[in-house]
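User:
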Amino acid sequence: MESASSVLLSLPPLEKMDAKPVLDAAATLPGYSDADKTAWEQKTCVTNETPATGALADALSGEVQKYLEKQYGGDHKPTKYRYVVLNGDKAGALKLFTYAELLEPHKSQSGYWASEFTFDGSSKWQGSLFMHVHYYEGSENNVQYRATRTVPATTFQGTPMDAKGMVGNMKKAVNALHSHLIDISDTAVQASMKKVRRILPITKTRMKWDDAAQNAVKVLKKSVNDKSKTPLKPFGRK
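Assistant: Predicted structure:
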C-alpha cells in the first residue's frame, strides 16, 4: 500500500479544491502525519501559513505575480493559478510555491504545473518543477502523465533587485521542461506512425510509399496534359 505522502503528492488537479475530504482520506493511510498535510497544502498553495514579509519577499511576490498573470492569466482561462512566498528555516531564507491548474470536466481532462523554489538566506537559489496531466473520458480511459525536473542551484546576493533574476531562472527552467515534453510527444507520434506504416497489408507486401507517391504524381500530370489537349466545345452545342 502506498504511503500517505506519495498519495497526496500524486493527486491530479481536483474539480473542487476541498481539502477536508482529501486529508480525511489520507489520514487512513499508513504513515500519515502533519508533515504530509503541510507538504500538500504548500504544493497546491492552499496553505494557511503566514506569507513572508520583507524587501526581498515583497519584490519576489511582485515578480511572480506578473509572471503567472502573463503565463496563465487573461486568454488562458479556465487556467487558475496561485502562489505563496513563505519564510524558510533560517533568517533571510524564503520558500516560493507556485501552482497553475487547468480544469475542463466537459472535456474529461485536467492538469497542473507546480514549482517549489528556495533561497537559503545567503546566496543559493534552487528548486523543482512538477507537471501532471489527467485524461479520464469514459470508464476505460484513465491516463495520467507526470514529470518532475530539478533546477540546479544558482547564486544570488539576496537583494530585492535579485527578485527578477530569480523568477527569470524559474521561467527559463519551465520553458526548458515544456520544450522537452514537446520533443517527447513528437517522437512518440512519429514512432507510432512508423509502426503503422510498417504493418503489412492483407497481401503481405510492404507498401513502397515513395514509389507510390511518384506514380500518383505521374498519373496526375498525364491526366492534366491529356485534358489540356482536348479542345473545349462551345456551351450549348453537341
